[in-house]
Amino acid sequence: MFHPGKVAGIFSPKDKDVHSSDDSTQALVEMWDENLFTCMVEPKIAAKLKEGDVVLVDYRPVSEKSAVPRQVVSKIVYKKKGAMLWEQYADYKRQRKQEAMKTQQKTYMG
After folding, report:
1. pLDDT of 8 above 80
2. Tens digit of each residue's pLDDT (9 = 90 or more) over 50-88
């Protein structure tokens, strides 16, 4: 399973404001469902990653024995595909909120 998100910040060992014990890059990612995570970034794409990019975060389990998700930025989705991906999830989130509000209104007996 993969979750889309938008990059809000990047923490690279090459940044002058970052002291790092290794060569890995992390990204602060706002997920489609409004969660906020700091995730590892796959080394092959770390240099190309920019703030505002739409990304796919790998949520597959770390191993067959563990349900813990990897939470690694594995793809950058550019231009039309990125906008389409983000909008699809935003529409889904809006629909869920509207349904929750309708249900809440029906159960309120003030």
Report:
1. yes
2. 999 999 999 999 898 988 989 999 999 999 999 999 999
Q: SS3 for 22-49, per residue?
A: CCCEEEEEEECCCCEEEEEECHHHHCCC
Residue 53: closest CA among 4, 3, 2, 1: 4
- The mean of the pLDDT values for the chain is 91
CA distance 103 to 81: 33
Instruction: Of 12, 8, 6, 44, give the one whose Cα is nearest residue 25.
Output: 12
Span 27-48, mean pLDDT? 95
For the chain, list the domains and their CATH numbers. 2-107 (2.40.50.140)
Q: Distance between CA atoms of 72 and 54, rounded to whole angstroms?
A: 14
Name the nearest CA neighbour of 50 among 83, 2, 12: 12
Q: First-to-last CA distance in the chain?
A: 42
Check residue 110 and give its pLDDT.
58
